[in-house]
Amino acid sequence: MILPPKQGITMKKFHLLKLTISLILGMIAFLSAATERDASPKPDWFEYTMPFDSAAVDVSHVLEDGPAGKHGFLKTKGRKLIFEDGTPFRFWGLNVVASAVGMPKEDAVIFAQNMKKRGFNLARLHYFDSPWTGGGSKDEECLIDYSKGDSQHWNESFIDRMMFLINELKKNGIYIMMDANSGRGYLKGDGLPVKIKERARGYSMYVERVMELQQQWMKRMFNRKNPYTGLVLKEDPAFVIMNINNENDLFHTLRYNVAEPYGTELRRQLREWAKSEGRLEEVPADEVLNFHYKNSKKHRVIVDFLLYKQEQYQERMASYCRETLGMKQLLIGSNWRNGASGITLTHDSMDIMDAHLYTDVPRRSKNKRVLNDYQISAKKFFERFYQIHLLKLGNKPFISSEWDQRTGCETRAEFPYFMAAQSTLGRWAGAIQFNPIKNTQKLEYATDNASWSDPAVYGIMPHAVLLFFRDMRPAEKTVTMMIDPETVDVYEKLNTPQMFTPEIHDFVVGVGKLSGDEDPKLVIPHDGASLYGKNTTSIVSDNGMYSRNIKKGIMRINTKGTQVIAGTFGGKKYGCDNLTATIETNFATVALSALREASIEQAQELLVSVIGRCQSKGFNGVKDGDKLTFNNYGTGPMLVEPIMGKVSIKVPNPNLKVYALDATGAIQESVVSSTWEKGRLTFELSGKYKNIHYLIK
Q1: The predicted structure's pLDDT at residue 465
Q2: Is 96 within 8 Å of 123 (Cβ atoms)?
């Protein structure tokens, strides 16, 4: 039926409208496709493999000589870490993951020596209890032999290799942190009605049998004598920190209805607690009660109950470790960024606050992986960085036991510099890079994180180490954000105006109410304080050493001993006090450090490192804005984009020469062509040497 003109449209107009819509949709699709670009390595990229058994640049001189533990056990003093003899301690650490914790003994000797050369003074032994690491009696890649049908049978040969590694690390002055429950799976053979997958997230805090099993594990592990050190593990002062439960809490992990019969048990405990508190009438009657965090505002009784259970769990485990086992190691309760305020409010019994920091985690989409690939220097807000500060209590040391920007992220060469600068600016006690080493025989290529051989992370690590231990200074001012425990949402987030604050000042959290007499520039409420406008485009730390121009996409770190320029160059010239770089390549990081002296101008040896994009061979990705889509991580060798441009350094000595170093640290050619004029040494970057390091001496 054809409608009259006033009531509808003619068929001619209908087809015209249909054609117009098709053209518009086609144009949208075209424009969308036009923003995509190939993020795979290009033919002119060069191979660069960092050997397992050497370090191109040795920065071990900033660390103490071994053995670790010679100052006694580690203690806390306010927000600082200090040994029994009064020696202060900060650590720049590395995660040793899964089967690598039981690496072959010949590898352990080399690995420990190389860790020290690369500037790490703490190793976190992590995920060595997880089923996915192997866990069968045949290959013994895991601590636990899950083939027995429970999680209580251990592979003795794995433990022997782990103890050997601990001794090698100790000899080289590298301290130990260990997880008591990072990936353990709990099976029916453990005396459970239904198996619980790895970590037992959430369940471990209220299921009695799981808590008993965890206590048994700690007793068995920490009372064990290391045949290579001659010490029971808990009596070894080189073992400094124990994490009770990796990435675990009761708010984020119980987002949905929990498995039975554990859901029924949790609801029973809720009603029992509510009755004892005189709040039973507040409990929803729904028997399939969803503990999703979105209900937190609607049902405060659930929030208060979960806070109670989480705090009770922490106190139980802390008491068991300290009083029953007699452990002197410092304790961390959880390192989960999610549900941050819930963790902050329940960690009184813990010694250290900890939060993990990743720019993003790859998500599977059909047969591909997708992640947000942020260029930190050009990002308005790096939300995950700001959110971890909700766990940074003003009366406890703060660390990040995992930080990383995933392999595939094109601009990850900025991140080590960002972390070294910001962790020092904010007075962190330590930071531990997440290394995905799972098998020491496969270190030559990247996996789902930046591998030990990734030049975009470990190649430039010497500058980060020097910044962290020697050159960067803490912020001059401390801003405290007060959390009101009676009103704060357990999923509280920093408001937009607050987000710049941790990048500028030392930022901590206090628990309690504002009195009204505080300095609004130093003490702010959690629900809307504004120190910096949301339209801020230029950030400068209050000590003047760190800056980020969001509009230009350039980050600078400017100290006497190390200077860094990172971000979108695109042919432009940017500089610090002594370092100037004009880079034609779109993205690059350029760093300059005095290797041994504290000042660039007084140094006899200088290190310059230049790197931009870096991917594994065979990596196949497409970039669309901040979104990166890729098929796989590729294999070795790593491929590095040549950086074109020039570097100019202000130095008083006209006799300094420039040498190109290869991945092992060997000089490639006698002298790199350079000029010295008006107090500046200048040399060209052409890709000729297929390298990332230059030694100037």
Answers
A1: 98
A2: yes
